[in-house]
Amino acid sequence: MKRHFVPVILAAAGLAVAAPVLADHHEEAGLPGVVDVSRVAAGTYAADPNHTLVGWRVNHFGFNDYFGIFGAVSGTLELDPADPASAKLDVTIPISAVTVAASGLKDHLLRPGSEGAAPDFFGPEPAPARFVSTMVTPTGETTAQIVGDLTMNGVTAPVTINARFTGAGANPMNKAETVGFEGRAMLKHSTFGIDTFVPLVSDEVELDITAAFEKE
Fold it and tell me: Which residues form a coiled coil (predicted)?
């Protein structure tokens, strides 16, 4: 991939400085969500499918980058602020609901292979992807590294997410206790059996994640 990858391993020291600044901004703006760990209650949270997104980015033929989004994410987060390493994440991402700007590209992503051949990308009616954490390692007061197994296109492989806590509070619309996170990761789509255009389409895929979870 000619374009150099946006670093996914964020400096814990830098984030430790940035988090209080973000918290102060949220408080000054009167926002419901604040970067304040003391607001987080232990328990099980469900992914908010309307406000949780997984963005992806690849390089196209060396000309430019192209990106899209997966939404309608479902699943759970088990969280105890007193013991962040015990957190467990299990989320499902519907591949068939991929969103891109061009309808022709979406058709290609979900197109069956010709004359019995394998599809170029996911093919029609692809199974949802699923990420299940296997280890959570705190890297700062508001950051953690989440290692887990991603199952996609019938293949399971490890993926690491560098995550940052971005806010907690009561959702003013439904009053649900809500926590928010952002994450970055990188994977190779050839690992999951999608390699038709490698290296013309970069094998490396950048993932940019924004997630909201509501307490059950």
Answer: none
